[in-house]
């Protein structure tokens, strides 16, 4: 545990402090103040690929009233924030923090900087392409699997067999349901292609890999085999944060939004207050980033929003959000 002497600390806009894993940083009532500048991105503090990091008891103060808007290339800079939680960050906590006067947002959680995937992740389009005499041919390798369903060929896990999980969905960007149903069937096989386990999956949600799995096949609902081949499903495992708690925090005058979280799963947001957030760009207090279906299993408990000029919560996608004792006024 590290306890800062109470004071005001000026933070460089050009450097980022990376919090290590297994450490609690107690700001002890101190204020971390971002210097004024004209750039498009600044991240004073970051949790990246760490576990058991906690930040508590202090103030993040941005440069909302000192920012050089006239010389910034972006009309509404969206990446001048206070805290980023990225990559394979697990079991983290942010507690008793006031975020105020931010040009962009207070905190954001999502995909890591490249490499985006686990080091040995396997990405596979479920279609086979061969080249003969300089001509590319797509082999129709999906087969019927009952009425209205079609099964992929065997897909080798390769290095991804050492991962704990796998997801089957569209890889990045604006996502959504790629077949006629969110649900699909998946069967795992050993190295001899003998079945190990079958289960029902849900696009973008993680599936635990069974021990000894070397191959898998998916079964989807589609119009025909050609549509199944063209659906664009991939198997992958992104490096995104999970199992975090943000509790007892105030977000005051964050220009873009209070928080924008494209990706992550199993978060608890508790006792948060959003005040006058979202003047520009995202234009809301909390932005569940549209098009990212990787936001999953979020619990919002005792959330208070007031005086936000354009809106409170924007939820264009995301899966399994639960709200308890919230006041969106």
Explain what the structure shows.
With 329 residues, the chain is mostly beta strands. Helices cover 2% and strands 50% of the residues. It is built from one helix and 31 strands. It has one helix at 225-230; strands at residues 2-3, 8-11, 17-18, 24-34, 41-42, 45-48, 54-61, 79-80, 83-86, 90-102, 107-110, 124-125, 128-132, 135-139, 143-144, 149-151, 155-156, 165-169, 183-189, 195-202, 207-208, 215-221, 234-236, 242-254, 257-260, 264-275, 284-288, 295-306, 313-315, 319-324, 327-328. Strands 1, 2, 4, 7, 10, 24, 26, 28, 30 and 31 form a ten-stranded parallel β-sheet that branches. The radius of gyration is 22 Å and the shape is elongated. The two termini are 38 Å apart.
Proportion in helices: under 10%
Query: Proportion of β residues?
Result: over 45%
Task: Please count the helical segments.
Answer: 1
Please state the structural category: mainly beta
Number of strands: 31
Average of the residue pLDDT scores: 87
Give the overall shape: elongated
Rg result: 22 Å
Low-confidence sequence ranges:
none
Distance between the termini: 38 Å
Oligomer: single chain
Question: How would a textbook summarize the main sheet?
Answer: 10 strands, parallel
